[in-house]
Amino acid sequence: MSNFDMMKDEWSLLGHLGETAEYNVYRDPNVTLVKIRQFAESMVEAIFSLEQIEVDSECSLIKRLRILEWRNVLEPELLEVFHNIRKHGNLAVHTNYGDFTTALNSVRWAHFLANWFMEVYVSYDYEGKAFSNPEKPQDNPNSTIDELNEKIKLLEAILESERLDYGLKLQKLSKNSGNIINKNVTKVRRSQSQKYLKNKPLSEKETRLNFIDEQLRNAGWLADTDKIAWSQGERPEKNKNKAIAEVPVNGGYADYALFIGLDLVGIIEAKQYNFSIAGHIEQAKTYAKNIKDMDEYEVPFIDGEYKVPFIYATNGRSYIEQFKEQSGIWFWDSRYPEKTSFPLEGWHSPDDLKEKLKVDENKANAELINEPYPDFVERYYQIEAIKAVEKGLADNKRRMLLAMATGTGKTRLAIALMYRLIKTKRVRRVLFLVDRRSLGIQAADALGDIKIENLSVADIYDVKSIGEPDPETATKIHISTVQGMVKRLFYSDDRILSVGTYDFIIVDEAHRGYLYDKEMTDDEILFRDQQEYISQYRRVIDYFDATVVGLTATPALHTTKIFNAPIYTYSYSDAVIDGFLVDHEPPYRFETELLKNGITFAAKSDVDIWDEEKKVFDKAYLEDELSFEVDNFNKKVITEDFNKVILEKLTDYLDTDDDGKTLIFAANDLHADMVVRLLKKAYEDKGIPVHDDAIIKITGYIKNPEEAIKRFKNEKYPNIVVTVDLLTTGIDVPKIINLVFLRRVRSRILYDQMLGRATRLCPKIGKTSFYIFDAVHLYDHLKNITDMKPVVVNTNLSLMELYQRALDATDNETYEYFKNELIAKMQQKKQRIDRTEENNIEISASFGTLDSWLLDLKSMSQKQLGAEKDKIDSFDRLHTNSKYPNIKYISKHPDKLLEVIQTYGPKNMKPNDYLEEFSKFINDNINKIAALNIIVNRPKDLTFNELRSIQLELKRNHYDENMLNSAWQKAKKEYIVADIISFIRQAAIGSALVSHETRIENAMEKVYNMKSWTPKQMEWLKRIRAQLLSTPVLAPTAQVYFDETTVWREKGGYNGMKRRIGEDIDKVIELLNDELYIS
Prior knowledge:
InterPro entries: EcoEI_R_C_dom (IPR013670), Helicase/UvrB_N (IPR006935), Helicase_ATP-bd (IPR014001), Helicase_C-like (IPR001650), Helicase_Restrict-Modif_Enz (IPR050742), P-loop_NTPase (IPR027417), Restrct_endonuc_type1_HsdR_N (IPR007409). This protein has about 1100 residues and is of the alpha/beta class. Helices cover about 45% and strands about 15% of the residues. The protein is built from 42 helices and 30 strands. Helix 1 runs antiparallel to helix 6 and helix 26 runs antiparallel to helix 27. The N and C termini lie far apart (about 105 Å).
């Protein structure tokens, strides 16, 4: 009898592969491993046919498994089994590897899969058979070696004849099952699969043999429940790392004990596969307290309550976030009793535990308090952010988020944090995780450039950069892309990185919430959609036993779900007010005829199209009228004349020889090429000579984009760069002073990241602000979208699954989230629906019109949406027009520029209206906002913090100095650069608007004339003047001003200034307070 007899009727090839593997377990384990791999590969091919998934016949097993993972066909536990078989089979094929224990385990795994396959794909009523160890030749005296060999030859002959039949069977299955598999069948299969995994009667012993032993071996431990057991005489040995089973303790036996040499370092409680596991760590803790004092091993913590530092509990199941109590490897470090236990994805390696034992977290936390900050982080908010992270570490937080505006020095902050944590031995090794190569290269450059006592961080510590091998023992910082780490951890046959490889992870640009808008490069196509990216990127950071800090300028909903709410925030408004970033001028808003009216193709006409898939131009016949609004310009419809009109006008504003640089955001790579061509032609038509290198595109499709980015940053040319997504995140080019939007985006996060490219200071070119040229009314489109509510389309869920999730939601936020996903996906489908189908459904399902119905869905309550099931089901069954599934329409409609205007505030106001709104806001709030009242009535009492608070409040309401000055100049035809205090007082009490500089010069003139000052005193008075030009506020008294203003406090505060200027210092500040705001 074979363990695989149940498959021989309908799936004989699988049955005979399993039987052949059994017969070879004792005779030739190598053959067994090869046959079991063939068994797994053949089963996966069958699953593809049964699930109606089309794939290239040359598609490898690892790629097929990945597709099944994407489609949620295989649960993590099944994937783990398939991958174990695949890896051992590959080793057997390529190195002639053959180990009896591994071979027997592979047969067990195959039997586990066989029972699953029978229950899910053959008969839902099938009851899985228990596994029996294959019969040893010596156990059957009637069977000779010759007979066994004959049996194996016969099986090989059967297999050879069945392989062709198997291929034909799969082809027939694919054809007979139709193009679309019944959704109910899919649902039942998934349910049956989950039921099998839940109810599979794996005993604790089987769980250990099938899963836990293999997992421990993969992590570097010698493990075998049957052989490496205390009862079998196995004992700890020097220079060997063993997971010994059934080790006696007072009151029982530990399922496993981990020994590094002779040192007992870990206790494992193992439970059977379908047990909830989190609570069973308490049993392991009990064993750790009751360790016997034995001669065979050393107990490092014999004097403590717990004799063993590392405590584990597991049921062998892969970690699943949604079922964390029922899965994963639960871990607790008994050296820090205030920490709670938590689940891991894998086992610590022996080296991981050795390194853990070297770290004294409490001692390191104390040292961090007194450790000086490196000179290269001198801004107050950077130090505050570092303190927040270090406090979080001391408070045992494992996930933290820093929200800091683009351009405020997050990379420097990260380097300072890494340096301090490594120096004090608070962490052993840091993973610096980025989402694209260019960011990793930029981080590596910074580590090589930033100096600490004349040595760079890369000189002090071993740093592995993008593309370098796995970290070595001495490596302290490793830079990697998310994509590279996903491949390394989950799709590679190389040695698996252990969960303790890194104990601290920094995720740069942690938002990554805008793939809904992205044109993905080859490297990024590793992920199907944003949900896939988030899932895999979260899987990476969950894999390691590490504290994780996310850095972002734009926290998104999914970001806070991963990292929790920010522990420290330093906003764009904060940075502008503090003078660390520049603000933008009022946007230039373009209006053209096509932009205003849209593009419409007439019914019953032929139109030119670009077939994206075939990369050819073609024609299509339109039965019905087809219209496009601006959000589809350059995406679904190629409109050269619109771009030509915009770019021709832009030449009036952009100088290719200017010191400042320009970044143009295009819709896709094809559009970027068009923009470069048309812009060069526009300059040529105006007779303006342009160097050919001055205008280029930098996208993920050019050769060596990293080199092009360096030239953009450091050299004169290129001066104008057209990009899609490559330069939207994390790229530091301070000379950018112009941003041009030629594409609509739907993500506020991406928009903020785009703006962030131009916010950095650049004194070298005298940059005080930057300019926005909005050719697609992007500012209007996004003004009401909040950062924390991105609409995300999960392409992996069907319409009905999204509908059901919306109905199942237990809170309004979750309901709205899935309802919006549902509507977004329906809108996408509507664009592809055949017009005849649309007419039919509008009549039969009583929609009215699809457009009005979809609009109504947005405002429906959960109960109302529940009543729409039949309509949504009808919509789901509509056939889409697949004749041209991936095309762009080519518009030859002429366009004309109507106007270019600067607009103010979220309402796109004219200058006079904006000033009137500001005046109304000030007068309405004088008695509501304390700091505003002080500015109007008692300006000499105003402190820096009060000024800062009112600036932030005005910013929140869309009022700032740049906008007000620009509006004043346009409305009054009067060029004055006034500060916010002057504008407030002018609006409230009608004070004459005097320029910021003039007001300060007039006040300082009075101070200069107070007495005859010495040259040194005059030098310090001029420093006060310079500080006032930067921050136009004093304080009620000289002592408060000099003691509480950072720049003066660092120079000795009030007493220091009194020594330099003399006893008249109080009179100086008093006089300035009187003169600065004379009405």
